[in-house]
């Protein structure tokens, strides 16, 4: 199946699984032997396509999404959240990367700006990650630590192979004050729904209108697929988060996003989605060439009117972003004032423009799971609930 | 060390270097091939050890070459039928030899001479030409690239313009309606920007008109400024004392009222 497919990619779309000979005994490797026919699995002594290291060509990048390499991660798993930059407060947020690269194929994906490994990786030594967490737990078990997966690999799209969700949910039962977040554009949730949890595992779905998904988020779950998966999680008591991010401007964007809000609000009450955020298209300028080469200029993203912003990323004009955020938030408010939507990775000016408040003053923001949005400001004024 | 004569050497490796080999320096040769001083008709040539590898010798002689010069050298070597360890060679110039890179080298040596000259002059890098990766055929861009180089843009300006040309071609398929009548570089850029960023451009034009129409107090300079994703009015005032400041602030109220009247 090619990348132009509008159906969700699954393990069937993987061309080949390479297993590092040192990890053949791992649980993921054993599962790979069961799930893939023998002709699609090889045991290797060295990383495949190793000669292709460095900046990947479009073809190499595409290929890297279709080939999995199971190997150990060498290094420390836990990293501070990438939002922890000057000006951005970053609560106790840690990023856990149990792999690298994604089997789905969004035109704007930021992995295009830095991935230079020619194969998608799943790290088999999850025990090491859990051990690191245990060590952290000795000092921080009473703290509100937050762990996010899904920064450089979707949290769930390959989970039917790794089943890491199950191990992580079980582990987090021991630390009810901690929170774990799965971030996904897939609908792969069935594999963990039966696992008992402590109510501290947030399943967060990135949401976009179906026409944007079809045009820009290739191989991801349809909007309906994501909503249905979210409903299953809700029904099993998992807290949900919806990220309306990246909002993508296109002719008729208002109607598309209004329809999206209708789809969401028809299925979910505000209290069932305690955290929602909104963000607009943004990407590193370096990735634009690869994007253009891979998706042409007929895409809403590659043809977007984006220009350099203060942090160097390419974004829509600030007034366009404000207009989009204001519109989406307004649509939610039409449904209920209880919806609480935060702006993701935005500048203070945009917060002021779109929600008429500085981030630090927004009620509930600090409780929001992904604390990347919290910015340090002096003003601490309560604004009306449900921005 | 063996000394030969220019006349005895082949000039098959003449890659058209940007600067001629310094007159005071002797020419070098290797296995009967002239490596430097291609413009010389006579004179002595120091023949380098034929056991040495050309991919090692070349970066020693020419530690800094532009991408275009390297591409021309690559073509000369291929024509001469020599086998070089290209990854090693290009590594010495900080470049990674790959299929994409080879394709780029082969493409750029076929560019028209004036474009090649501009590329060499501005020392264009692989990254500067990355926009072309999205094009199967560069031909539709070439007339406009040639037109652009006649305006002698700087490297940064030129690279951005090339990128817009590629994007506009991919979006619209024909650059003639956009660029046929332009007579200078700033007009060229303006036309392309208006086509590539139509919404933003229309908004900017509107704001530029608006800033001129607003009733700014006398002695106050106002202009519309865009800084990347942010745009707004930049207001400059000069006051010597509080009454003057007060007057300017009062004057600004008229601007505020006018903006309100227009619903802005
Ligand atoms: S789902 Fe996320 S990681 Fe995967 S391609 Fe899309 S943006 Fe990238």
Structure keywords:
heterodimer; A: 387 residues; alpha/beta; pyruvate-formate lyase- activating enzyme; globular; B: 264 residues; 3 domains; four-stranded mixed beta sheet; two-stranded antiparallel sheet; 6 strands; binds iron/sulfur cluster
Question: What features would you describe in this structure?
Answer:
The complex is a heterodimer of chains A (387) and B (264). Chain A contains 11 helices and 18 strands. Chain A has a single domain, classed as pyruvate-formate lyase- activating enzyme (Alpha-Beta Horseshoe), CATH 3.80.30.30. Chain A is α/β, with parallel strands linked by helices and 387 residues long. Chain B folds into 3 domains: 1-110, no CATH class; 112-196, no CATH class; 202-264, no CATH class. In chain B, 48% of the residues lie in helices and 12% in strands. Chain B has helices at residues 54-61, 67-80, 86-91, 99-108, 113-121, 142-150, 155-172, 176-179, 185-196, 198-213, 242-261; strands at residues 2-5, 27-30, 33-34, 44-48, 220-227, 230-237. In chain B, α6 (142-150) packs antiparallel against α7. The longest helix of chain B has 20 residues, at 242-261. The mean pLDDT of chain B is 95. The chains are: A alpha/beta (387), B alpha+beta (264). Chains A and B meet through α9, β16 and α10 of A and α7 and α10 of B. The complex binds iron/sulfur cluster (SF4). Iron/sulfur cluster binds next to β7 of chain A.
